[in-house]
């Protein structure tokens, strides 16, 4: 199945993720929980690549909503090409979107998901405005 990413979403990062033998379940395909792990890995690697390292005593991103739609099974062995898109920066939030496809089947999306991200002041446990440097990454 081919998925169109709407224009207002901007590609910001992509990476390959190996499918591990242990990612599969008794049915012989990647367990649905592992798709969320792939999406999490993609978001974290992007965050680290732009200098947004975890800062438990400061501010940073928190996922408040996550989803994944499954279109085709992923199976071992293989590599997943994960692509991350962002959109809709608001005062304290932005949207992230992702596609997962096998590297040996370019353009054929096996799953697509996303997450709403909120910027948080961790010591205060409250939402905080997106910093200018993060907004610049989101808007390109």
TrEMBL record:
Pfam families in the cross-refs = 4HBT_2
Q: Which SUPFAM superfamilies match?
A: Thioesterase/thiol ester dehydrase-isomerase
Entries under InterPro entries matching the protein: 4-hydroxybenzoyl-CoA_TE, HotDog_dom_sf
Protein name, please?
Thioesterase family protein
Q: Which organism is it from?
A: Curvibacter cyanobacteriorum
